[in-house]
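User: Predict structure, ligand iron/sulfur cluster.
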Amino acid sequence: MKAILVQPPFAQLNAPYPAVHYLESFLRGRGIEARSFDHSIELYRRVFSRSGLERAFADAKSALADGRLDETARTQVERYLSYEPLYLEWIDGLVDFLAGGDPGMAHRLASAAELPRGERAEAFLAEREGRIRCEEASALATRILEDLGDFVAFALDPDFGTVRYAERIASSRASFAEIREALGSSYIMRAFYRPYLERFWRERAEELGAEAGGASRPRLPPLLVLLTLPFPGCLLGGLACAEAAKEALGDRALVVAGGGYVSTELRGLEDGGVFDYFDVLSFDAGYGSLASIIDALPGLGGGRAPRDGALYRSMYRGADGRVVAAGFDAAAGAAATDLDASGGRRVEPAGAGSERFAAAERAALETIFPDYRSADFGRYLRIVDSVNPMHRLWSDAPWLKYALARGCYWHRCSFCDTRLEYVAGYVPARVEALAAAAGEAAARTGLRGIHFVDEAMPMASLLGFAALNRARAAAGEPPFHFWGNVRYDASWTADRCEYLAASGLVAVSGGIEIASGNWILIRFSLVGLTTIRSATLSIYGRSYSTGSSGSFDAWSPLYGSIKSPTNSLSNAWPYSWSSVDYTSNVRIGDAPGLTGIRLYAGPSSNDLVINTVELCLDAS
Ligand code: SF4
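Assistant: Predicted complex:
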């Protein structure tokens, strides 16, 4: 049996999204020949190429000539069209440069007499009086690509965003008819993704040869097509991909979709329209569900429904057209209750194999890690969309991504639905197995940087990994460097911070939650400084509002007084930065050499979540 795993567009640009690679390792362990493909980065590179832009500019001119654009869009599009020759001249070099090729391009960007100037590039250059330093070349190249993204959105496809697509449609709980309509009218799908998919699936069909089709050929086991939809913005791409797979492979393709979007947003699904595209929806980590699907093959696909009790934590469309939610046992927590409460679908109790599948899921969570053998890290882009060092850590390097645990040990953020399976079901991974898998991936890719993607890295696992990393270094192997997200609990002692920093931990980002009516104090040590010329305070976070327009009074200093910045954090998604000149509020010399700020939640909001607080000093 074979499996093709696809990450549909659009997910992250800097590194492979790890989900398909986890599942690929799982399937290989079960003797299935599995291979992953990242259509997200491939589609991005298809649009942002000379030939892609030639198509987009030609279509934009048609839209302009046909009077399809409003006044704002028309003005914007005319500006971009005036730079068309320059965009076409630069685009392939810029993308190659951001992918790590041709470092000399930095000098060309720094000395270029003429550059295409959309709003973002124009602003970036204006802040630097028209001339950048070589080390700012990646940031400028990123702005130029972002400008082109704006151009596509203005002229051709308002749902286009660089790392997300049509999220509004997928997450607005639109009826499936609306989603189908959006899929049919999408410019990006029609002009770029569908032609790509046609070729992609034709190639896969040719590889499969006799297995792929032909009524006279012997019936062979279906090809598993697994699509992961981590975000709402992947839904339209996933639907288009499923449709194309079925067109090319017919009944031989059993299309299964899973991932974070499926496990949360589609948990209460009653509209069966999605099963015109996907045969089965797979929930939660996917291992138990996939194990049950593999056991049920080859009786699945081609309109055949599984026998009752066969599937685990999965949904499909039953013979009566109703959605069937199968195999959600008590361990699925609130999900089981939600499912039972629904009258619009049939809830099929967990079958005899459910304990076996639950055990398979748990064992996989402890021991399965991606080896990234299907990934080409040279395709990914080192995007520099912010000078902020924490932002840069996220996006300007191609990290190997692993999780130290499934679920969240912290479990205490008041705004979080901690009943969700992927939060409530805490299963730590075995760090020895993780380190071994990362060692293989490092040898294969040459990368030793790890981004732990946990919501909150558990201290015990982190210490265990750090010890293994020290042993690796002591044995003469180049050690890993790693970072991730934390919650600042009592386990973060000074000794442990020092030990972890000496063992390869390069940074942590962490959320701090403030409930309404309270404030928290953040202190900065300024010991050893004698002069402060300037200080900037920046806060990265968001609010969770009880009302539709909640916002926060962001901060006040320990000394003196300062007005809250006018751009204080709001309940807008995503997280946002606020910055303020803090120079007059920073003091040195006070025992014990500390300065600080108080952060307050504002009146109409519940919680303020601060992810990063930075005090940037020009000091000596
Ligand atoms: S750290 Fe994340 S997953 Fe854990 S409780 Fe808080 S918001 Fe939820």
